[in-house]
Fold MAP1B protein.
Amino acid sequence: ISKGPANSKSSKSTAVPPGPPMYLDLVYIPNHSNRRNVDVEFFKRVRSSYYVVSGNDSAAEEPSRAVLDSLLEGKAQWDSNMQVTLIPTHDSEVMREWYQETHEKQQDLNIMVLASSSTVVMQDESFPACKIEL
């Protein structure tokens, strides 16, 4: 008896299925904010005070504009207007354009975007960093 591959990949999205919302303090948006893994349903269900947005690969479309737009659409459906802070780990053209084009909607939805200009230097390496104060 021959069996097919146990770990065959499906072309379907692995995004969060519908269900009741979860409230968290800090969420790292998975897979460098790739649109194949994060959609409007993710932001409807995974409600956080802080979202960390990774990704600085424009060729791979990371972070994805669709993911950033999904945050706006998902947050608009929350039953409260709690403050949300978006923390990009890298400065990117996608993030700058999205910020400028949707700034008014961000304000309406009580979303604040932090600048991503902090750098940590340790011995022979340096890397971007964000400080979160609660």
